[in-house]
Amino acid sequence: MDTVTDDSALEAGRPWPLGAHWDGRGVNFALFSAHAEAVELCVFDGLRMRNLLLRECTDEVWHCYLVGAAPGLHYAYRVQGPAHRHGHGHGGHGHGHGHRFDSRQLLIDPYAREIVGRFSRQPDDPAHGLKACVVDEEFDWGGDQAPAIPLADSVLYEAHVKGMTRQHPGVPEVLRGTYAGLAAPAMIEHFHRLGVTALSLLPVHHFLDEQRLISEGRVNYWGYNSIGFFAPEPRYAARIGGQSVIAEFKTMVRSLHAAGLEVILDVVFNHTAESDEKGPTLSFRGIDNLSYYRLPAGHLAHYENFTGCGNTVNLAHPRVLQLVMDALRYWVGVMHVDGFRFDLAATLTRDSAFLAAIRQDPVLQRVKLIAEPWDIGPDGYRLGRFLHGWSEWNDRFRDDVRAFWLTHHAGVAELAQRLAGSSEVFHVAGRAPQASVNFITAHDGFTLRDLVSYQAKHNELNGEGNRDGHGHNCSWNCGEEGESTDPAVLERRRRLQRALLTTLLVAQGVPMLQGGDELGRTQRGNNNAYCQDNALTWLDWRDADAELIDFVAGLIDLRRRYPQLRRRNWLTGQAVGDDQPDVVWWHPAGRAMRVADWQSKKLGAFGMQLAAEIIAVGATQDTETLLCLFNRDEIPVSFLLPGEAVWWQVFDSSAQAPCARLQREKTSLVPARSVQILSRQAGSLSDA
User: Fold this and answer.
1) Does 173 qualify as catalytic in the annotation?
2) Which end of the chain has less neighbouring CB within 10 Å, N or C?
3) Is the overall model pTM greater than 0.90, yes or no?
């Protein structure tokens, strides 16, 4: 590559906004580095590289303005700092002071809107293959309007952009596995058929594959290895008609919004793809290692690792916090997304003003904020400790619901607590039941089908000797490990999958489905398929379970029809309309549950009666009371029903026609391993 030094077109520019911004005349470049001694802007024209020395630094921001520069320009930085090294390897001078400057290394702009090139990790080669690209952010949104669906009415659907459509026969082949494919008519039809309201996408920030995976012929399929917080991942772009990756992403959002679907991004701000001290220097490390990362006191050559991924981003630094906040505002304001799920969110709150910054930000107040409320550091489990306005992935719901139905290690008391929105966890500081994001399965762990088909994880294909992945799965193989042809085993699995799904959709809080569970998807017992970009993880639409799809659609419709399943206030047991308690916990013997019942180790059946919420809908009102009956036992259980009048069965998870409406008087027989839902008009019965 030819290198030319020429700053004849360089002006001082300004220190804001950070990143590269085109104004029609040229591009302003601004880069934060508190400890740099010199910064070069490297711009590329084919094989020719121009090195431009930035002579202006204001408030630790190095800046310049390049006249004539325009969208499409590829650029990088070189940064020189204290004890910078000219030798090879990663053990050079300055590490004891926390610095890792290397004046040879080409570095990606942390604010890059698009990252181009192919990453190649060559230890002795500073040109790792990646560069930033100046972009034109103009886009015709065509009057795009965010669906703005209330959390209480939301049903989340966790999806992988590639895996969702890679094998879908109804998506044009050229679009399969892409942003454009995710918004194809066949996909929107499926989402509408189910009734979900939001797609919660696994990471779409530009990410890299770890060297270990590359050397083994694998990739980081899930994408939790970000290097660009503003740049969409290009491997998911179809680029039809030369459309840019950014324009394709925006088009996807616009199409999904037009279909009434929200887009929530899984974002990884807790660590970066630069990994530990042996990892590649790509961006943050070479720009200002001491500012961007948390380094252990007295061991500044290493990194604090609260993430398990080698490093921890230092949000306690105001400029690093600014980077994260700027990125969030960008994805909302420019890319029009509707919310975020924050990976290992506990890391973001350590010694930082992150929660306070989010709380006061006017742009972020209108979007959905979901925390994964833990990491592996000290005091890393923080479920229930986020502020009002936040929702949290509730792993207690996952574990207790699994343990109730599959291992019987949780009893009726634990299940009732989860059905009530985990109020003992979230009923603090003015939070609502929607603080709990309830899930049975997610990308990390067994699929729903595997949860009832495997007693143990089978991760041999990952190349780690089956040591990876969680060993505590609360799963049950129903009598045979893996695939089975035994009718009794298959019937147990069918019933348990449906009972688990029904529990999810009738619980207070925000339900989240893992994409593909409604199809009956299997990963053959792999509960950590992060490196499997193949048919193991891609959804198999040709072998989809149509009955299960209809079952899930019926459940979501049931939740939509009955507002008492998605209350905005906590259940109290106190009287509401018609002087009935908002909830009554019901014993099969025909009475309210007692203390001894809750403490029983043997009781496997109970009911939850939910009083009607009197909500005007046009000229009508919803006045129906619901009775949800749960039976995990191996035999049917007969329930004496409250009052004297007629109840109507509106759902039976075990039935071939689960939504059939059947009359029930005085008693109802609930089949083994099933959930039954009954309805009656409020006020038609005497008090329970």
Assistant:
1) no
2) N
3) yes
